[in-house]
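sorry for the late reply, my laptop died twice this morning and i had to redo everyting from scratch. anyway the thing you sent over, i finally got around to it. pasting the sequence first so we're on the same page, its 152 residues, then the predicted structure underneath. double check i copied it right bc i was rushing
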Amino acid sequence: MSDKIVINNYDDFRRLEGQQIVDSDPVEITAEGIQDFCRGTFNDEWIHWDREKCQDSPLGDIIAPGLYLPALFPYMFWQVMEINIPRMIVKGIDGIRIFKPVTVGSKIKGRATVDKVLERDKGIEVHYAIAFDFADSGETAAVATFINRYWE
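ok and here's the structure:
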């Protein structure tokens, strides 16, 4: 998507319900990116660090931690979205499922659909259905549902 989707009010979200809003450019997965993420989360599992050991395993190379792909979503989201509602919070991430290991050199694309928009006492809650796909094959590596709250 070349132009940003601009959200100025709750009705703008309601109009997007059921529509795909994100189809990101591929993000290349690097050893440095994986290991920076692991440092920040105190994850010292060998499958994220020891390339030599991984190359001798069925993995073939180090793999991204399960939470790495969902952590890329904000980067993908803000490339295409402009939200002009003053307050926002990520309420949670539901249903994270990993279907296939993501190794160094993989290129991952993110897709997101506004799954549902719920009314709340103050503001709205938006559920985004996210899929992380391998750019070369289109195969889905992982899925998740992001839940954000917006209020004025």
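The chain has one domain: 5-151.
thats about all i looked at so far, will dig more tmrw
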